[in-house]
Amino acid sequence: MAGHYDIIVIGAGHNGLTCAAYLARAGRRVLVLEAAGQIGGAAVTSELAPGFRVSTCAHILHMLHPRVVRELGLKGAGLDYAARDLPTVALDAEGRHLTFTGDGIAAQDTEALSEADRAAWPDFRARLLRFAAALRPMLAEVPPRLGTKHGGDTLALGKLGWRLRRLGAEDLREFLRIAGINVADLLEENFESELLMGAMAFDAVLGTRLGPRSPGSLLSLLYRLTGRTAGGPARLALPKGGMGAVTTALARTAKAAGTEIRTDCPVARILVAGDRAAGVQLESGEEIKAGLVISNADPQRTFLELLGPRHLDTDFLRRVRNIRMRGTVAKLNLALDGLPRFTGLEGAALGGRLVIAPDLGYLERAFDHAKYGEAPQAPALEITIPSLHDPGLAPEGQHVLSANVIYAPYDLKAGWDAAREGFAEQAIAAIAQYAPDLRQYIVAGQLLTPLDLEREFRLTGGHWHHGELALDQLLMLRPVPGAAQYATPLPGLYLCGAGAHPGGGVMGAAGMNAARQVLAKEAA
Amino acid sequence: MKTYDAIVIGAGHNGLTAACYLAKAGLEVIVLERNPYIGGATVSRELYPGWTYSNCSYVCSLLRPEIMRDLELSRHGLQVVPYDGGATMMRNGDHLARYSDPDMHRREIARHSKRDAEAHERFATEMLRQCRFIKPLLMRTPPDPASFRPRDVMELLHLGKQFWDLGEAQMYDTLRFWTMSIGEFLDEYFESDVVKAHIAGGGIIGTALGPYSPGTAYVLLHHYMGEVDGTIGAWGFARGGMGSIAKAMAASLQAAGGAIRTEAEVAQVLVENGRAVGVALADGDEVRARTVVSNLDVKRTFLKVMDPKDLPADFLEQVRRFKIRGSSGKLNIALDGLPSFPSLPAETSVLRGDMHCTDSMERLERAYDDWKQGTWSRDPYVDMLIPTLIDPTMAPPGKHMMTVFVQYAPPKLANAEWNDQTRQAFGQTVIDQIAEYSPDFKDLILHAEIRTPWDLENEVGLTEGNIFQGELTFDQLLFNRPVPGYAQYRAPVRGMYMCGSSTHPGGGVMGAPGANAAREMLRDLDPKQMARS
User: Which of A173, A185, A364 to mutate to test the interface with B (most CBs of B within 10 A)?
Assistant: First the structure.
């Protein structure tokens, strides 16, 4: 097998597939090895019950990078949207919901949303989007290293500074003020509606280990707003056929360019020869040689399990061990043999993203439980019923419900195996507050806790982003200094997953950037 | 009527510092203080016959050595005696003590965890590195990143270079340190809960954040970076209580020709033709000056003693949203003798330092949760000291004084008001906690002055009882402090300045805001003078 492949990619998650596709199109001979029986990692569609399909983990496309879509021709490879721009509905127990669209917020009456808040919203959102737009180019750039004499790094830093300067004095000052602020304070400065603030804060904390009052939570919201999918900024899209359609299209593109993809091929370790990566050994014992190995696995798995501490220095190892990656999101998937009625929501409105986060205190209290490894009794949720846009996901007249539930701490003291059912019940009870007849429609369901995500999708800590998107784990600090530009201390070994810049969400930017870096640094 | 060169509103330590520098530069300075005593929160009060309380700030470390030197505070009577010792008492009857002798300290940590004893050296080294980086920034005026003025561009470049000169690895470590929580930072070094909890307290003192809130590693630095007699990180007692700092500053001011008037509450800053020209006192008197500088916090300055029509609307809006947010309370206790702490080693050296009862990170974080819910912590974090073990002059012979600083207490209670009853209940919570570790404590209490955020506001003028005159969070530090665009000690009115802890580098008894403000004022008054200095 020697010399048959230039590059081995460990893991057929969306970033691994993206990376492989770019490299294959540049003429490299790429082999992707996936441990599971199917490709896609956590961006997959699965059958929940006969006839019912659902996006198993990731369920809303809001960060898929437009360059990846365009450059890899994903539309031509079969990616289509069932919905391009979902409104967000902040649910209220009495049916006085707030609906957020690109145009503003619609509310039933001024008791639900004051005139002052309605008027303040457009400027507030516009300013956040301006900041997000200034940060957006960084998604597709390799983070600069600090302190090098390398011209490229200095230039990249200069570009960031320049983009911020171009915001103008007032925006720049405000950006510098809020870059590290907590989202609750910023919301309270601008609004009075509890429901509005709860819904916005939800977006800031979803997927993080932060509460609305945690410094840094605003930046998490800005990160989300840098997404530009389905033609516009901060849009929420549903891929037709569920999230698996994205990775299927990526795999198709990669294969069309000559990539070989093998499933049911778990990698046991990365081979090292002459102080360089030399290939991999599968769990079956088979060895496959290649001069370059790129890992889509999270950094802890990559360095501590696949490579092993023997090949890394103590300081680097300590940093890797210290990467915080304990997930806080559980996924609830339900098969429904009808459409539940949500109080105060009619017909098409049910097709939006429904958020249960009635106020800041609700989220903060849920967070305060999770901090200590306890499951909150009153979780917060974001819910979609994708079958309303994509009827193929369920039999006629029947539906699937897909929800992210927070906070579900990975390190639950009671242990998830014991607590899973109870927490699923809490989540369903939370939804039932707004859709009282929900339970009678449930024919099947599953709750994937962070522990399940770790077991089934090989996500260490069950963390979506392969590592928290905290201020100290971003950019040139992600995943750790010394491995923040996709290359690692071992020559020939690269990272291409969410654990590297720019992080997670179904984006593909990490894979794209890693491929570009490999092509720049490694001769064919 | 005499026109002074500068009026200083408030004889807090920053106001006194600013006044001293201005007077030494030859200006005619008068400090106007509302209370009958000077010092603001840097005071010694005899609130119980025979006892001197440092009833607000209680220990000294951050007072800048440059300021001590420039104002000749030792010559004017200030003596700061470093203390050693200190401990965290544990619920299981054990303790973690601090010893100034490094070997003893190492052995003490090793008692709890050998791994942590090793790690402590690395930790201390890292803290020192961070201290070294930040110290030069304290006495510098922050640049305005949105301005193209040569001075701001040069200062930005200067700061950038300081940062760059750290070298790649250090730069990353510094970025991480400045953005992490103290809890997560400590988790990277230590495994023992009590070792972490003992250190983490310094990351939340005076702050409405928990040990796992990002940004608290910086707050620890704020409490670590002082020095006493050249020893970085050391803390000390001012002989005669913290009021002796104010006294020494006042003496230095008088020696330089400056004046102080007490019981002279400023009601309003007088503004004519867009310039500050003096102040009107509450009793109707007017005092005129070329410049006015306020030691009051930013809300009190711009929302209480200035007329809104003299200030830009968006500036006022930003002042209103500046987070002051008290989170601390205090007990000052006269004791009939020295209480016994059976869980501590017999020798009293440990008692001479700061003592705590919170032995786990979870307890510390839960104490913060209570604050968020609008109540005082049911299981508070205390910073307890017995200054009379080092400075016996503060109480009659054989008797003692204990100062207890408490986190957390909210400025407003969710389900009640701060009043005599709730104050008592708060004090009782703290006394009950200490009594758990000292069986004779309650019997020895002769008098307890209990101070809630409400009291701190009423007596000392610290809005909402925040001891730093404003939260030390990212959005309120450096060029954001107190308000972006106005972080260089100048108010939006010509001739009007700010010198309190609401400005960079923030609070603690540091004096840096006062010194920096004076420098900016002198620069505006006489550019040639600045070139000479």
Answer: A173
